[in-house]
Amino acid sequence: MSKVSNRQQAILDFIKNEVREKGYPPSVREIGEAVGLASSSTVHGHLDRLEKKGMIRRDPTKPRAIEILDGDSPSELPFPTSVSKIPVVGKVTAGLPITATENIEEYFPLPAHFVGDHEVFMLSVVGESMIEAGIHSGDYVIVRQQSSASNGDIVVAMTEDDEATVKTFYKEKDHIRLQPENSSMEPIRLKNVSILGKVIGLFRDFH
Known about the structure:
This protein is an alpha+beta fold. It is 20% helix and 32% strand.
């Protein structure tokens, strides 16, 4: 096994501890704060070197995806019992349950107390239609599955074109208004909307 510096060992130890305690790896900013590095680029440099040495494996397409390796095989760091594995849904397919196996891209750990007994999924946001609500393209919304909504709820809805969209819900006299939180965009008005769930949280990776 390649030798690592004291700083790199501190980074490895911090990642292991965070996974054991929380169930998911820390962000680059959290790693920097823990080991005394103010620059995220410096943290990235250490992570790059650890990856080249075969100590970690990263997936740039997934949030916080840092896997600790033990020799040539992954080191299985158990999820604590207080963590729930939440399905991250890629494409929403009309006529299938939202968490149908073919829709799920990966699982993401969240604290069990946050999820409770509800059925919850995560969905990647594409586009700028909700930026004035603080939801940006590339964010992951955390969604509680439910088929109804109250006015002002931010929901994931299936439109008449079988497209899943994140918008603010309003039931009006003879239609449903799905309101974008972007003053440059027009609302969607529909007679029928299928509510897939209510947005209850947000995950953003500052990587």
